[in-house]
Amino acid sequence: SLGSWFLLVESAIIIALLFLVVVFCSAQLSVIALKYEIVPQKKMSIIVAGFIFAVAAVVGTVLFGQEGYTARNQAGLGLIIIPAVISIPLQYVMFGTVFDSLPQATFVLIGLEVLGYVIAVVGFALCVSACPPLHGSVVIAGLAIMAIANLLSLAYVFIMGSRMKDHPRPGKAVEEPLN
């Protein structure tokens, strides 16, 4: 178990992609928090989920970045890949905050993120039992798809939010008093 489990470039790309997913998710949350009123309870649950995801990412990175092919490295890769599932329901909740009736584009973006997650998990399963990992590119591809989906989601919320800046949220009728 001397040497590195993954090539240094592969490890760096995996870690960078994970943190891109975290950053894009956090940026989307910030855009939504600044543009829309969010119920404090919902805001707190989104923040807690994002915090858990970020902590798992940091701990996973520390364990994954160590030398050798050990149970710690495997656990680290698991903490990088498995908690990434948090970003999927988080994405749904954030879209639900912006749109009362989710447009098809949001389901496509969530579906793209699910696809990326499934590919990353398959890559993790293929890599965890191999040294050197023969399918590190599968993990990278899955995380890259997730990062792209989060970036597109951020852009979608930002663009749609700016279009609706002077308009009420879709589906929210402005209620007039009956008097």
Description:
The protein has 6 helices and no strands. It has one domain. The chain is 72% helix and 0% strand. The chain is elongated. With 179 residues, the chain is mainly α. About 7% of the residues have low confidence. Helix 1 packs parallel to helix 4, helix 2 packs antiparallel against helix 3 and helix 4 packs antiparallel against helix 5.
What are the SSEs and their pairings?
Layout: H1 8-35, H2 40-64, H3 71-81, H4 87-98, H5 104-128, H6 136-163
Helix pairs in contact: 1-2, 1-4, 1-6, 2-3, 2-4, 3-5, 4-5, 5-6
Sheet/helix structural class: mainly alpha
Mean pLDDT across every amino acid position: 79
Radius of gyration: 19 Å
Main beta-sheet strand count, sense and barrel state: none
* Form type: elongated
- Uncertain ranges: 165-176
Helix content: over 70%
DSSP strand count? 0
User: Could you state the order of secondary-structure elements as H and E?
Assistant: HHHHHH
* Total count of helical runs of at least 4 residues: 6
Pfam families: CD47
Protein name: Leukocyte surface antigen CD47
Keywords: Membrane, Transmembrane, Transmembrane helix
Transmembrane segments: 12-34, 46-64, 76-95, 107-126, 138-159
Key features?
179 residues, mainly alpha, 72% helix
Task: Give me a quick take on this structure.
By secondary structure, the protein is mainly α.
